[in-house]
Write a structure and sequence with these properties.
6 strands, HalOD1
Length: about 110
């Protein structure tokens, strides 16, 4: 089992012995990337599959359009929060700043 985590300029590094963890930072993404797309990419990376090969899909856990709207077009920096949901064997945390954290919860 491997642990994946952000390390400097590297998007993800792998460490043996821990659960898979992928941290996708909003600052590392293109300006126009929807939050739901960033979530799908982070989950796919944690599962070591292509985004189009994901099962279950993001839509099986949350409404991607609602996720995109949740933290978009908020005035000022006063709004802070997060959404946490499970998708298969992974726990996904989406921060109001656009950061995405995916943790493997089931070591299958």
């Amino acid at each position: 089992m491997a642990e994946r985590t952000t390390n400097g300029d590297d998007r993800a590094t792998v460490r043996e012995g821990g659960p898979r963890v992928v941290h996708s930072q909003a600052a590392d993404r293109d300006e126009g990337t929807d939050l739901s797309i960033a979530v799908v990419e982070a989950i796919a990376e944690a599962k070591a599959v292509e985004p189009i090969e994901m099962e279950p899909t993001l839509y099986d856990a949350v409404d991607p359009d609602a996720l995109d709207r949740l933290f978009t077009d908020r005035e000022g920096d006063e709004f802070a929060g997060r959404v946490v949901f499970e998708l298969g064997a992974h726990e996904v945390t989406v921060q109001s700043n656009g950061d995405v954290l995916v943790r493997q919860t089931d070591p299958r």
